[in-house]
Structures are given as structure tokens and as C-alpha cells.
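Why run this: before we spend reagent on co-expression, it is cheaper to look at a predicted model of the complex and decide which construct boundaries make sense. The entries below are exactly what would go into the expression plan.
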Amino acid sequence: MSLLEVRALEVHYGGIRAVKGIDLDVEPGELVCLIGANGAGKSSMLRAICGLVHGVRGSVRYAGEEISGLAVHERPRRGLVMVPEGRGIFPQLTVAENLAIGAYARRDPDVRDDLERTYRLFARLAERRTQTGGTLSGGEQQMLAIGRALMSRPRLLLLDEPSMGLAPLMVAKILATVREIARQGVTILLVEQNAKLALEIASRGYVMESGAITLAADAASLLADPRVREAYLGEGAA
Amino acid sequence: MRRALRLPDRRAPAVFWSALALVAAVLVALPFALTHIGTAWVRISNLALLYVLLALGLNIVVGFAGLLDLGYIAFYGVGAYTYALLASPHFGLHLPFWVILPIGAAIAALFGVLLGAPTLKLRGDYLAIVTLGFGEIVRIFLNNLSRPVNITNGPQGVYRIDPFRIDGFSFASTQRFLGLELSGPTKYYYLLVVLVALVVALNLRLQNSRIGRAWEAIREDEIAARAMGIDTTRLKLLAYAMGATFGGIAGGVFAAIQQFISPESFVLVESVMVVSMVVLGGMGNVWGVVLGALLLSFVPEILRYSVAPLQHALFGRTLVAPEVIRMLLFGFALVLVMLFRPAGLLPSAVRKRELAERT
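The model came back. C-alpha cells follow.
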């Protein structure tokens, strides 16, 4: 059974169809990436899965259950957690407070262990635990956003453009961490503009173009696909 | 930061406890000292303590959850009228106060939810307008619910309200106790000090609780808070309900102390006053809010008693009416504080950061 099963998903903004009937599956343990140009509808789709947009049609099944009618705050409680585009950290709260809010929906006693684990994964955050989120660099804020999401013990982590606005070195570092998180058993759906790096760490990929999926295959064949190479990897047609 | 706030006693337990004992001793002795200056000061202190209760209640809504409320006095009115109608000759009901206060608190909480539910999606200016309207609606209802069925007795208000009574012990009469003379206001004073202490303790606990953290998150970024699994609807309603509860309790005590209430006690200016106390003291900082409420209650009274004598001493006669100069100085003081301490006299850690970032 797929962990996430999206069928005929549409997102309407007023009269505009930003997502035009998409099918997408994520199996447990996979790292799936969704690539595409700016405005292809990738973020709209992620936000629809999280219930953050109105005007959504179609079906979203998570862990075998239809969740399209579920309240936004119920989703993270079931392990469906998103790291939003632009990070969405709490800028006036300290790193430690941000992470504590990540564990808000949990009541189990393992929170402390998870905090230590998060600090091990992001040593930089441990150094800055008393600093406020807004004073961190872009890369550190992204780490904080991912760390905060991990604090809620996600089963499925949705990452929206974690590389956005970051220096190349930081991008590589963040994506390496994403791979590490996947290796620890968290299923991930990664939305990225940086197609090359995303496909290098993913097992499968979808290509999205103006609201529809145009290609779906395992990451290696997408990397080799001439259409992908031309459109997303910056290689001119031979 | 959080730990330092909650556990000052861990660092220096002896200092903390002796300071606490000192404050307690001063609070116990205060009414006797005040009686020497003039009995009116005990009453003024009681009103000040009522404002502290109100400001602490509003601080939950404004300071913790970040929802501006310009109609907060309505809950005070609801609590006061609940007490008045259930313990006065108006309906011939004379329920004991320990029965009425919880009822008043519950009704006020219900009104809190009634205000909160339709305004969940509003923010900033729009929320301010709606809450302001809500406060006025409640006042206008109190003013006009005398016909066709006389419920509130309209603008004349409700009078001969029962004082707090436990069997033969009445809070209204003067008693001798261990050789000390305890006047009615003095007894209410002690009751209010205990109430304020309880509410302060509750506020401090709330601030450091899971709920307090969720409110902080909502104030910072509501969508991110929801994406982290925080039920923002429920928590915002909870803030309104809790704030209203304290307002309702304070209102009940107010009605019993005054033994007379009318809609005039619950006008917009009163709401603005309580908001000023919270803002001046330091939104979100419990001690700041207490300080703000005490200052804004006492300073105008002190001015009331000092402005006229001072003019007499300087010019031999009263040049400006005390009432005029009092409000002028009061407004001036508020402007100065906002200029030099924009986050309040004792700002909360988070607010300080917010303001620092904006300037």
C-alpha cells in the first residue's frame, strides 16, 4: 500500500487551474522528488496535500485513509509534515523554542532524545540554540525548519524547495542531510527546482509542467532522459 | 530565558523567599497604613487591584495570543451584572457569592467564545473594530434591556447589591479582629490580594506551558503554527474564554464592592484604559502588566489629590481645574513612556526582540 496516493488532484485559484489532475504515489521508505520550472504548480500541489489551499478537487489518501477533508492541524499529528517554502520558522523565538513547537503535537517522553538527535544532525543549531530564528543565516533557517519538522516525528516529510535562495555549498549540504534523513527511515517527497541535485539523491522522480505531470520514472533514467537534460539540467539539444 | 523566569528561586532561594515574605508583609500591613492617610485610599487600592485582575485577563488575549481586544470591559460588565441580578432585590434573588462567581465566570467565558468565534479570521485593525463594536453592543444591551421585560433596569442600574457574605461574616461591615479594626474595604482588599496572587501564579504557569508556547507560535505565524499541528481555532477561542473568565470574576467582585452598578461603568474608555495598562506595562510580561495596572490606577488618583494643593502653594489659588490637568499629565506620561520604552515598562523577552527588529 502506498503511504501517499494522490489521484486526479486539481487546485483552482479563482478561475485558474494551477494543478490539472495529477496522480502521484509515494511508497513507504522512498525519497521521491518532484521537479519542474517555476510556476509549474509544484508548491500548489504540496500545499493541497497539507490542506493549506482552498479549491482542491480529487483525492489524497495518506496511510490508506482519505485526508482531503481533514483539518490542517490534524495532518502533522498523523505524521504528515511539511517544511514550507520560505521555511516558515518563528523568527522571534529561539532555536530551542522553535524546535519545541515542532514537538507540540506529541505527548510521548522521547521528545528529549529527538531533540538531541536533531542537534546531532544539525550541529550548527546546537551552537545557536538560544539565538532567535530570525538572526540565523538562510541555510541555518532551512536547517531549523527541517529540524523542527523532524521534532514531530514525521512518517512522510514534504519538503518545498529547501534549496531556494541558498549558496551552492549550502544547497549540497542541505540535500545531503535530506538523504541522511531518508536513510534513517523517513519517507520524503521533495519538491525542487534544482533538478540535478534532487534527482541524484532521489529514488524516483516526477516532472511537472504547467500543472500536469509529464514524466514519471526512476531517478536514474530521468537523469539520463534527453528531455530532462535539455529542459532542467541546462544542457542544450545536441 | 524561560527557565530564569520560572525559577528565580533556584538561583538564590533564600533571597527569593525573603523578598516574597517582605512583599507579603507589606501587602498585609498596607491597608492599615493607608487608613491613616485616608480611608478612601483603601477603596482606591481595591479598584486598582480590580484593574490588575482585568489587565492580567486581557494580557492572555493581547499579550500571549496576540489578539487585540478593544471591548474587553464587556466581560467585566457581564460578570458584574450576573452577580448583581443574582444577589439583589431586583429579582429578589440572594444567592451566595461562591455560587454566583463561577456562574458569572462561565457566562463571561461563553461571551468570550461568542466574540472569538466570528472573529477567528480577523487580524489587526479589523479585529480591533469588531471587538470595539462587541463591547459597545454589550453596553447598549445593558442600557436597554429594561423593556419589555425589565432585566437590567436600564440606565438606572442595579442597586442594593449584596456584599460577599459567609454565614454571619459580611465583607461590608466593620469588625474587630484580634484587636484590629477591619473595615469592609479592608476585607475586600485582602480578598483581592489573594485573587490577584492566584491569577498572577496562573498567568506565569500559562506562559511557560504547552498552551503558552502554542499561543506564542500563533502570534508569530499562524499558518506555520497550524502546519506544526497546533489547533489554532481552539487555542484562540481558549485565549478569549480564559481572558473573559478573569474579566467576569473581577466584575462580580466589583459589583459586590460597589453594591451598585450601571452601564456607565462599562464604557469604551474603560476598555481603552485596560489595554493601556497592558501596553504600558509590557504586553506578555505578567509583572509588567501588574505594574502598568497599578500605575495607571494610582497615578491619576495621586494627581487628583495633589494638583489642587500644589497650585495653591505655588500661586495661592487654583488656576487650572484638577480634573483637566490630571488627564493632561496622564496623557503626557503615556506618550513619554511609549516614546522611550515602546515595548512597555517591563517588556517581555519576545516583544523586546520584535520591536528591536522593526526599528
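The interface with chain A takes residues 1-2, 210, 213-214, 216-217, 220-221, 223-232, 350, 353-354, 357 of chain B (CB under 8 Å). The longest strand of chain B covers residues 175-177. Bring this page to Monday's planning discussion.
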